[in-house]
Amino acid sequence: MDSPLLRRLRRDLFATPLDGLISIVLVVALAASAAGLLHWALVQAQWAVIQANSTLFAVGRYPLDQQWRLWLLTILLAAATGLSWGLLRALPRPDRPARLWPFNDRLAAVLLAGLALGLPLLLRLGTAIQLRWWVITALLLLARWAAGRWGRRIPDPVRRWIPLIWPLLYLLGMVLISGGLGLVNVSPSEWGGLLLTLLEASFAILLCFPLGVLLALGRRSALPLLRWGAVLYIEFIRGAPLITLLFLGQNILGFLLPGGLAPERVWRAAWVLTFFAAAYVAEAVRSGLAAVPLGQLEAARSLGLAMPQALIHVVLPQALRVALPATVGQFITLLQDTTLLSLIGLLDLLGTARTVMANPAFLGKNAEVYLVLAVLFWGCCAALGLGSRALETRLNTHSTAKA
Amino acid sequence: MIEARGVEKWYPNGFHALRGVDLTVEQGEVVVIMGPSGSGKSTFLRTFNALEDFQKGAITVDGITLSDDLRHIDAIRREVGMVFQQFNLFPHLTVLENLTLAPVLVRKLPKAEVQRRALDLLERVGIAEQAHKYPGQLSGGQQQRVAIARSLCMEPRILLFDEPTSALDPEMVQEVLEVMQGLARDGMTMVVVTHEVRFARQVAHRVVLMDAGVVVESAPPEQFFANPQHERSRQFLSQIS
Predict the structure, then answer these.
(1) What are the respective helix, strand and coil percentages of chain B, to the nearest 5?
(2) Share of chain A residues as helix, strand and coil, in percent rounded to the nearest 5
(3) Residues A172, A114: one domain?
(4) Is A271 contained in some domain?
(5) Distance from CA of A303 to the nearest CA of B (A)
């Protein structure tokens, strides 16, 4: 009766009578709620509302005969993800040990495989769609394995260009989604569900970051006009609720941006999200800039670096590293803020859910719909968080000691 | 090499930090500036490469007159290296990258050539084996030697030292002073703000005492330490010895 496990349990959970009481109460409460949830999910809940509308939740009213383009994009994304993930492990920084399959990676791989096998089954999606998800997940894991196994053999000049697949893929994805280059145009008003949510969020995340960095630099600039402009912008945006800006944007953005840049409501909303998030990213970056000692800039300038060179090579790399967690926090908030788009009449995930729940055939199935929504959002945010943590560890090689 | 005439500086809060400072530094000369804290010696040193501005007077460095013209400032900074009290190494770059950054970006030299030169310089300051470590992994004395090598990698004509040993543990001071002594022997023009009397005695060609924003006395070290001419100098020397 004195195994290490038992001893550890006793130390962690039952060290004192009070600890023991707290542990027992918590375990009972957790078990009760888990049992309740499971009972509801497996017995009472009627997932028919999700099965019948799964396509709607995923892509909105995207034309059926064009949906192969989205599958193709998903396949490419899975392959690129697997490739990047594997290379990240195969090519560690020179000063840290190489571990091809750390525990977290194994866990992630098992989770992914489990989700791919279990989720379509649970939702009783059609066999064809189930099969596609299995193939896509298998492709991701295969790419991960292959890149990890042979990543070192890729010659250096090729390797340096590999990160470029991501911006290229983004542009290609835009073409695949909206049409052009010989593909039939699909109007943005037909995009919806998770597709629209991810599109709006990724567009805003990608653009708000450089914009936010520029604003933060502007706010610390020695030029008064630039400084006051940045301050005015940041404080105005941070002082206004996003929803008012979204409504405002639908009305006036057409006048503010050069013709043709924001013709569609979807794009107008994307620009508002971008401008909104940029102000918050600017504040995160500003705190990062403040954390870099003045001596760094002085040293760079005394070596003859011009101001832009000093910023790009010395100040920003350190500032952005400090600002990274807060910035990713902003990205996660931004992703969740996309639900507000449903209030200006766009059919993002929440907007789609509202139309589904308004359908008399699925009356009273709110709990099922909201739970799926919550899980989907949690999944996206968790992915963002994991990615940022991986980036942080990779960037933090030097911070073991102060300099 | 450096010619400062009647330099006056007011801080934005109205403090009159420099009250008409004159100083001439010849090529190959090693000038040590001493003085109590708050005397303006670091501020004065930092005007030479325009890290501090000044309101009156004139400074000419290596034939270039300091003015608001940014091109002049950039030109001077290319030729004048500076070593700081807090080292100010770039913590996100390796030691080698710290050295090569400026020559590659500013002088547009080929990377391979700069790396060769950087490794030679690290050898010279005695830390070639640390080239691929990050500054945070080195001791204070090693960091300051890297900082000196980083300045040298730009092949400056003048080196400024702003209390280079004040932030070091006592047992690391010597290794840094030895590197500086070697530079002086090789004929580098140096202006050093320091409290190290022994360094001033052994290496300096001239010792300058500043107090309250003016130069009190300027003399060769033998004369300055043995037979100071001014009451303020005697007072200062009695306090530090």
Answers:
(1) 40, 25, 35
(2) 80, 0, 20
(3) yes
(4) no
(5) 6
Mean of pLDDT values over B152-157: 93
Please tell me whether residues A99 and A22 are part of one structural domain: no
Check pLDDT > 60 for residue A51.
Answer: yes
Query: In the structure, what pLDDT confidence band is assigned to residue A94 with cuts at 50, 70 and 90?
Result: low
Interface of B with A in 96-135 (CB under 8 A): 101-102, 105-107, 132-135
With respect to residue A111, please indicate whether it lies within any of the assigned structural domains.
yes
Residues A32 and A140 in one domain: no
The C-alpha atoms of residue A28 and residue A34 are separated, in whole angstroms, by: 10
Both A123 and A83 in one domain: the answer is yes
Nearest to A295 among B84, B134, B136 (CB): B84
Domains and CATH numbers, chain B: 2-240 (3.40.50.300)
Tell me the per-residue pLDDT of B142-154, one tens digit each, with 9 for 90 and over.
Answer: 999 999 999 999 9
Task: Identify all chain A residues contacting B51, using CB atoms and an 8 Å cutoff.
Answer: 298, 301-302
Report CA B17 to chain centroid distance, whole Å.
19
Domain assignment of residue A288, yes or no: no
For position A401, what pLDDT does the model report?
Answer: 40
Contact: B137, A313; criterion CB under 8 Å: no
Min Cα separation B81/chain A (Å): 6
Length of chain B counted residue by residue? 241
Gyration radius of chain A's alpha carbons: 25
Residue B91 and residue A309: Cβ atoms within 8 Å? no
Owning domain of residue A107 = 63-185
Q: Do residues A67 and A181 share a domain?
A: yes
Distance (Å) of CA B20 to CA A140, A177, A262, B37: 71, 70, 61, 18
Please tell me whether residues A83 and A142 are part of one structural domain: yes
Q: Tell me which chain B residues have a C-beta less than 8 angstroms from the C-beta of A301.
A: 51, 77
CA dist B38 and B22 (Å) reads 18
CA separation (Å) from A307 to A300, A316, A378, B53, B114?
9, 12, 42, 17, 22
Same domain, A26 and A101: no
Q: Give the pLDDT confidence of A211-246 residue by residue, as tens digits.
A: 999 999 999 888 899 999 999 999 999 999 999 988
**Cα A261 from chain centroid (whole Å):** 25
> Based on the structure, what is the number of domains in chain A?
2
Host H or E run for residue B192: strand B189-193
Give the tens place of pLDDT for each residue, A13-32. 888 888 889 989 999 999 99
Same domain, A33 and A139: no
Domain membership flag for residue A233: no
Is B51 within 8 Å of chain A by CB? yes
